[in-house]
């Protein structure tokens, strides 16, 4: 096997690999000789099948395996002998001349192919001792706990009928039967019996609850609504409909009781224990948001310290993932780029910069983690996988088997664990200043931060 480098431009490399016909013949003969002792063919005793006969029967398929093994060997040889770190899988190109390929598969001519690849950039890690970042810190207030308790008590409260002549008001619950039509025709999913509608909850189609305010038990009303453009049932999205709604009862929420009995209903020993659990849960949410903001500021600081050539294959891969999410979000919300105050070309340019940032930061974090010998144990991956499996009740085995049998999917479990450990390592080397902040300010601009952009690095890490 002869390997010759034919291109070295930036991060791109290309090699020409030649397998002489004599070597192809030697590899093929070796494989057929090994097969002779294993194959069973009628008319021949075990191990006595002539190699020439095997060649007539299996020569072409065995040669295909020989070529595939040679490609794998060539890729490994190129990487090992040149000390390369690949950005992506090598691209192998065979000759387009079919006669040339056919002759090589019969070991009557040399087989030549090219291996094109892109390598990871080499760069020095920047000094981060001068980096100072702010960690916003918010604390759960007693009023936050009380609001949550009130909401839980309301959800747990009994509903009581207001009587035959009572009028439904916002905050009441109306038990209804309804039949929906479009252009006079009933449609699938448009009917319901004994449906509980809480007026003011905004859980039904816009306009539906408002038109039931003032209804009495036994009364029938025609409710006119239009399904939202992004309604999950596409055949209904954006369409007008009429509902004949009959109120079977009007109910008001019972008295809110916040005591030990309420706590026991939620599996707690006492009201104080429930309050402690609520406070702990709310604080975890605040701490998680604080971590997100801290991490974003850290990545922003790192991004200013690095500028190097990026593997375009990784950029294109990242951009494709981000862009598909952007397009899907617009479609689901029935919006256009004009509605967002931009054009498709401007949006593409913006999200390409985002993709470049994510790839660059991913490579930086990967190298920092490698140099710091950051490791993610198999046990940590297993625990994270168990948490992921629990998100799919009833499908636990299928999800578990999918990840366990799919190395790339399992890598998606390991990657964020590695990234968080690297972030912790960097945080230990920079100056972190804690600043008290109100809960409202902590979550301000959360929608902007939720763009598929900033806070996480790229999967290639």
Automatic annotation (TrEMBL):
A GO term for molecular function: protein folding chaperone
- Write the Enzyme Commission number(s) for this entry: 5.2.1.8
GO cellular component labels: cytoplasm
Q: Tell me which Pfam families the record gives.
A: FKBP_C, Trigger_C, Trigger_N
Record field: catalytic activity: [protein]-peptidylproline (omega=180) = [protein]-peptidylproline (omega=0)
**Domain annotation PPIase FKBP-type: ranges:** 171-231
Organism expressing this protein natively:
Salinarimonas soli
UniProt lists the family membership as follows: Belongs to the FKBP-type PPIase family. Tig subfamily.
PANTHER family found in the cross-reference section:
TRIGGER FACTOR CHAPERONE AND PEPTIDYL-PROLYL CIS/TRANS ISOMERASE, TRIGGER FACTOR-LIKE PROTEIN TIG, CHLOROPLASTIC
Stretches for region Disordered = 438-461
Which NCBIfam families does the UniProt entry name for this protein?
tig
* Name of the molecule in the record: Trigger factor
EC class (word): isomerase
UniProt comment concerning the protein's domains: Consists of 3 domains; the N-terminus binds the ribosome, the middle domain has PPIase activity, while the C-terminus has intrinsic chaperone activity on its own.
Where do Low complexity bias regions lie?
Answer: 451-461
What function does this protein fulfil? Answer: Involved in protein export. Acts as a chaperone by maintaining the newly synthesized protein in an open conformation. Functions as a peptidyl-prolyl cis-trans isomerase.
Superkingdom assignment = Bacteria
Q: Which gene encodes it?
A: tig
User: One biological-process term from Gene Ontology?
Assistant: protein transport
């Amino acid at each position: 096997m002869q390997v010759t480098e034919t291109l070295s431009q930036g991060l791109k490399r290309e090699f020409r690999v030649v397998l002489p016909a004599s070597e192809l013949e030697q590899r093929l003969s070796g494989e057929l000789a090994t097969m002779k002792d294993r194959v069973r063919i009628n008319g021949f005793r075990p191990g006595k099948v002539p190699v020439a006969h095997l060649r007539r029967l299996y020569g072409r398929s065995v040669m295909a395996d020989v070529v595939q093994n040679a490609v794998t060997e060539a890729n490994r040889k190129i990487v090992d002998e040149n000390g390369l770190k690949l950005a992506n899988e090598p691209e192998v190109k065979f000759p387009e001349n079919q006669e040339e390929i056919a002759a090589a598969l019969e070991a009557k001519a040399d087989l030549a192919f090219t291996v094109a690849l892109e390598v990871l950039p080499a760069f020095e890690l920047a000094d981060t001792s001068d980096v100072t970042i702010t960690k916003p810190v918010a604390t759960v207030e007693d009023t936050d706990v009380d609001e949550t308790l009130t909401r839980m008590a309301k959800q747990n409260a009994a509903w009581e009928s207001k009587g035959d002549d009572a009028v439904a008001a916002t905050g009441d619950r109306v038990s209804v039967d309804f039949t929906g039509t479009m252009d006079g025709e009933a449609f699938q999913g448009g009917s319901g019996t004994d449906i509980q509608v809480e007026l003011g909850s905004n859980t039904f189609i816009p306009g539906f609850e408002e038109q039931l305010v003032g209804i009495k038990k036994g009364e029938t009303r025609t409710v006119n609504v239009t399904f939202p453009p992004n309604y999950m049932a596409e055949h209904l999205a954006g369409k007008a409909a009429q509902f004949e709604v009959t109120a079977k009862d009007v109910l008001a929420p019972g008295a809110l009781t916040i005591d030990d009995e309420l706590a026991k209903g939620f599996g707690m020993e006492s009201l104080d224990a429930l309050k402690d659990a609520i406070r702990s849960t709310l604080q975890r949410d605040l701490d998680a948001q604080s971590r997100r903001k801290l991490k974003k500021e850290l990545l922003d600081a790192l991004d200013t310290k690095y500028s190097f050539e990026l593997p375009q294959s990784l950029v294109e891969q990242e951009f494709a993932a981000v862009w598909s999410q952007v397009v899907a979000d617009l479609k689901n919300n029935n919006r256009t780029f004009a509605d967002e105050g931009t054009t498709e070309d401007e949006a593409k340019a913006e999200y390409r910069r985002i993709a470049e940032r994510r790839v660059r930061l991913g490579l930086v974090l990967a190298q920092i983690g490698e140099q710091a010998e950051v490791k993610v144990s198999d046990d940590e991956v297993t625990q994270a996988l168990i948490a992921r499996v629990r998100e799919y009740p009833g499908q636990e085995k299928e999800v578990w088997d999918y990840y366990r049998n799919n190395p790339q999917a399992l890598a998606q479990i390991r990657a964020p664990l590695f990234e968080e450990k690297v972030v912790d390592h960097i945080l230990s080397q920079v100056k972190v200043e804690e600043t008290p902040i109100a809960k409202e300010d902590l979550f301000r601009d959360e929608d902007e931060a939720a763009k598929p952009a900033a806070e996480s690095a790229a999967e290639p890490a």
